[in-house]
Amino acid sequence: MEIETTPLSGVVIVRQRRFGDARGWFCETWNADRMRAAGLDLDFVQDNHSFSASAGTLRGLHYQSPPRAQDKLVRCTRGAIWDVAVDVRAGSPTYGRWTGAELSAENGAQLLVPVGFLHGFVTLLPHTEVQYKCTDVYAPECDGAVRWDDPELGIDWHLGSHAPVLSEKDTNAPLFRDFTSPFEGEG
Question: From start to end of 46-142, where are the E strands?
């Protein structure tokens, strides 16, 4: 296992070793003891799985506020995505900054998006599946979103001139300037 840091404190890329032979390959996507030894001591309680039919399907930027905030460990099991995390921890030196990583079935990388970050992804290929583990269950009363194309955030979604496929929730999400963070920073 390899843990790769990103420019945002707490957001890491996890790369698990794949063991292959003529049949294909095998890897552990989560091992609590090994992750704990690497400094990732998380208690996952819910797994999610999404399918997107079209390339350019964008989901985000989402968060779940306290007391039901969630850490997420995201991986792409079919196709490819550009996965994004935005720091929204009030008082954090990287507040409002984002980082992204390409996750694909081929590269096997996973992105850990901790509590205090907005999360979103766009599919780079058709028929893409994404799976992620969460440290709390879905709580609709704590669910929130920020607009994916907010100019203040300036996220490069790797869409070029193409318009994304969006849900009504994501189309109508508020701008970042209208967002009041429920998360405390690390100062």
Answer: 46-52, 58-64, 72-78, 80-87, 89-90, 98-104, 110-113, 117-123, 128-134
| Ranges of residues in the chain whose predicted pLDDT is under 50 | none
Does 62 qualify as catalytic in the annotation? Answer: yes
Residue 49 class from Cβ within 10 Å (0-12 exposed, 13-18 middle, 19+ buried)? exposed
**3-state secondary structure at position 168:** helix
What are 132-163's pLDDT values in tens digits? 999 999 999 999 999 999 999 999 999 988 99
Instruction: Give the whole-angstrom CA distance, residue 81 versus residue 104.
Output: 6
CA-based radius of gyration for the chain: 16
Which residue among 95, 132, 138, 158 is the active-site one? 132
Asked whether the beta carbons of 119 and 85 are under 8 A apart, the reply is yes
Cα–Cα distance measured from residue 134 to residue 91, given in angstroms and rounded to the nearest whole number: 25
Task: State the DSSP H helix or E strand holding residue 109, giving kind and residue range, or none if neither.
Answer: none
Q: Which of 49, 62, 95, 162 is catalytic?
A: 62
Q: What are phi and psi of 170, to 5 degrees?
A: -75, -35
CB count in 10 Å sphere of residue 135: 18
Query: What pLDDT sits at residue 185?
Result: 78
For residue 42, the SS3 value is coil
- Judge whether 63 counts as a catalytic residue: no
